[in-house]
């Protein structure tokens, strides 16, 4: 398959304790090269989505790491060119299973990014494809 670029500790501090891989479009946006919508097409753009792969360094994923993985992604407004800190206002996470050894796959989607708020839904699957965590949060959008 496609080789996913790694994210170094200087960009994403959590990378010091775990291996993180982003899909190529998200990696470009994290590196401050956001893909901006074409003029006049903003309301026809699909919702921001991100795929990540993660595993702890020097250990296998456990329930705590699966829970952490539900909040591991960079803030979703980054994908539409609004980088910065995005404090969570509310977060709910559900552990659905114990992960098997290997990489965890994270799918994140934001259905609403607007004004000063955004939402984020994360689904975490283990190396066998089993659902291990679901997380939903509401957060403040980074400044203009």
TrEMBL record:
Q: Which residues form the Acyl-CoA thioesterase-like C-terminal domain?
A: 28-140
Region of interest called Disordered, as start-end residue ranges on this chain = 25-50
- CDD domains in alphabetical order: hot_dog
Q: Which domain of life is it from?
A: Bacteria
Pfam families per the UniProt record, alphabetical = 4HBT_3C
- According to UniProt, the name of this protein is Aromatic compound degradation protein PaaI
Q: What is the originating organism of this protein?
A: Thermocrispum agreste
State the taxonomy lineage: Bacteria, Bacillati, Actinomycetota, Actinomycetes, Pseudonocardiales
